[in-house]
Amino acid sequence: MTEKLKNGLDFIGINHYTSEYVQDCIFSVCETGTGASWTEGLARRSQEKDGAPIGKPTDVDWLHIYPQGMEKMVTYVKERYNNIPMIITENGFGQMNNPNLTIACHDIERVEYISDYRDSLLTAMQKGADVRGYFAWLLLDNFEWIYGYTQRYGL
């Protein structure tokens, strides 16, 4: 399967928001984490290691700000799949709905998040990663499957 991926794709699309620590539970002894399944590779996922969070936590429970993860992930795909062209198909910052935020607000956290993640992406590209595009998620807030409009992702 890996050989087909290395030689038979036009590009790889990547959604990237945050990073996690992952421990393999197939070949090492560990309890699988929440959401782990055979399709996910039976791994224990965590946003903490030795009690320290990976990156800065946000008010969205699954999202920690860790821009270095963008470079690491793109570099991994570059090395694993023979530098097939990549497109970052989703990247963005989520926050719980705040009635004080308006469409025209000075949203420092979102601006810093996107700027830092794009800088990390640029570092990977300067090291040779063939990245052909970047798309932010989303232009406007959308109705999330579980949370409705209580989490905001729009620019």
Structural notes for this entry:
The protein has 155 residues and is α/β, with parallel strands linked by helices. The model has no long low-confidence stretch (mean pLDDT 85). A 3-stranded parallel beta sheet has the order 1-8-10, covered by helices on one side. A two-stranded antiparallel ribbon has the order 2-3. Strand 6 and strand 7 form a beta hairpin. Helix 2 packs parallel to helix 3. The protein has helices at residues 2-7, 68-80, 108-126; strands at residues 12-15, 21-24, 43-46, 48-49, 52-53, 56-57, 64-65, 86-90, 95-96, 131-134, 151-152. It folds into 2 domains: 2-18 and 55-152, no CATH class; 20-54, no CATH class. The chain is globular, with a radius of gyration of 17 Å. It is built from 3 helices and 11 strands; from the N terminus they run αβββββββαββαββ. The protein starts with a helix and ends with a strand.
Q: Average pLDDT, to the nearest integer?
A: 85
Sheet with the most strands: spatial strand order? 1-8-10
Query: In total, how many domains does the architecture comprise?
Result: 2
User: Taking Cα atoms only, what radius of gyration do you get, to the nearest Å?
Assistant: 17 Å
User: How many DSSP H or I helices?
Assistant: 3
Indicate the overall shape: globular
Helix content: 10-25%
DSSP E strands, number: 11
State the separation between the terminal residues, measured CA to CA. Answer: 37 Å
Protein name: Beta-glucosidase
GO biological process, one term: carbohydrate metabolic process
Family: Belongs to the glycosyl hydrolase 1 family.
GO molecular function: beta-glucosidase activity
